[in-house]
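Action item from last week, closing it out:
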Amino acid sequence: MKKIVIIGANDFQKPLIQKAKEMGYETHVFAWREGAAGAEDADFFYEISITEKDQILDICRKIQPDAVATIGSDLANITVQYLAEELGLPGNSRECIRNSTNKASMRRAFQEAGIPVPFFKTVEAGEKYSPQSYPVIVKPTDRSGSRAITKVYKEEDLADAVMNAVSQSFEKKAIIEEYIEGAEYSVETISYNGCHTCLAVTKKYTTGSPNYIEVAHIQPAPLTEEMENRVKKLVFRALDVLGVVCGAAHSELRISKKGEIRIIEIGSRMGGDCIGSDLVPLSTGQDFVRMVVDTASGNPPVLKEEDRHVAAIRFLMNENDEKLLAELKEKHPDKLRKVVIEGEAKKADIVDSGSRPGFYILQANSHKEMEELLHHGPWENPLEGLPETPVQKLGFSGGEISWKAPEIPGWRISSAHIPCNHFYMKRDDLLPFSFGGNKVRFAQKFLEDMKREHCDSMIIYGNYHSNLCRILSTLCHKLGMPCYMVHNTEDIKEQKETQNSRVIRAMGVREIPCGKTGIAHAVQQAMDELTEKGYRPYYIYGNTKGQGREWVPVEAYAEAYEEICRQEEEKGVHFDYIFLASSTNATQAGLLAGSLKAGDNRKIIGISVSRNAKRGKEVIASDLNAYADKFGYSFPEDWKEHIYFTDEYLGDGYGRYSSKTADIIRKIYGEEGIPLDMTYTGKAFYGMVRYLEEHQIHDKNILFLHTGGTPLFFDFLEENDL
């Protein structure tokens, strides 16, 4: 019987042990007992460390194997080469193994051959070195499995990263290298007598900065034929430079947005994470593990006619991953090919690839089908079934402005009396989530849309005064979803902390600051980062230009308008006017959509808190068109004449307020017990009072929509007395 020595016995080595037995080999496996999942499959198991080369060699001389092999381990690969050379078996040279298991040696070999490499420097503990620029990547020179990899952004963090990498290195050295931008891929090849065959190109997903732990892999990678050919050409050249002539190889690289291909590193062994052992046969029909056994025995690899599918491995990194696996078991068991669970995600301390608590492998017929399997969307909608908010009759009439009213310039009456109206307030500030507000209704609809689109991460836009950013960041935190915030730093110049900013930061958002001209770039950056982490991102405004989802929040307030109409019937009152703070204008567009559908010709007046009148009306019209297109509605020909939006009370701009706004905030709180804020509702309420007086509107039923902003009321209290 033919005999094979296999170095290593963890779960990723099991397919090699099983395949060798299937091929009729007697298997002799060497590894520590702890974690040796393949020991039970071996004919003979030797509880010896894979680094004890001479001890293993002595036993091998007695065994007289026909082949020696490993998959997925650089450390085991060193021992395999040593044994093959000493026993006169097929394998790669000692120089090849040194260059393919030591990152610094590999960089030098590529550099000498003219293959582009990032700048790099090898250092020892305590050695001082200042990189040319930041960020840089720091990692051990001779380890794999994402151990001790750190992305360093500034000088003061470099020493700790080096110390961490050195502590994990066998030779006690770290490599500091330039950070290369781009999407990550790997290439699986088999070589025989120096001839290379590419079996698959894999798309790789990681946790990103700072540690880059793999979370998923998908085959085949979605590359164009031209790009795939360029990748193969560069990888084959690199394999020649390293001297890979026999067996499997796993090459890792990045491709920039400009199409530049940069090799990160190459291992002269099969990739770990089940890429070669499971994904290659599932996506191509090729038996990669058999090829490893064949070439280790001196036989040519057998290539079959390809049977193309899409294969993926997903690692359990959090509780949402476990929920997805449970659903796949229930609804798509025919797509699951392997499941390995070694612990619970919530109890796992995941610091590298070896500490991930499990994984599962899927096979699908297309990339689209795989995407839908891997991305579930939000697991629940905490905002489903929001209660109706009350409509409250106010004691305020607008007829008696006793708080400094005579001092307000421009008022047409000096007796401090203006025509009376009957004021009501729709209390959307009482919606039961994250201090309430109209953005809770938005959030409900965004989640519904995310579910439809299988999106599992969110990109929000705004600033630290934003009620929407507060609510959405809190919602993402509750659901365990990543949340990126594109922060327009030009909206508000002041850097002072606010109650909203404290909440937003506490919810763990990833902030990407930008100016107005850099918004699209920042959104694209967020999309790219989340995609590279294995998520399907959802930008609340659509594409990078903020187009495509205008209808979502509009739908929320078209429905809220129906709620208002029901409450009118219940109370036996008709509201002649509806006033509200109008900022992004979606709330006003939604209310107007509801009114146009009802055909009631009610005046809905938006008091601008940010935009000029021309731009605000354009946005409202655009939002209404998007809503009509989405749901197939036809509005009356004169519908644009129903857009009432004024910037007369904007004052000094967004986030700034006058003493008159402060006065009305004090009055409404003191007489009604209702908090308004200086950015949105207080400014809008003051604008409403001025509008009614200036247009001599009296004896009407006026509904003010309280759109929330309670945390901003407490910001007001930090600066003012009630």
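Closing note: The radius of gyration is 32 Å.
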